[in-house]
Amino acid sequence: MENDDEMAYLFAIQNQQNQVYFQPNPRTVNNNIINSFELTDSAFIKNYRLTKNLANSLIQELSPFLKSPKRSSDLDVSTKVLVALNFFATGSYQTPVGNSRFTSVSQSSVSRCIEEVTSALNTDDVFGKWVKFPSSLRELRKVRNEFYETTGIQGCIGCIDCTHVAIVPPIKDPLNAHSEYIYVNRKGYHSINVQLVKYTFRK
Question: pTM for this one?
Answer without folding.
Answer: 0.60
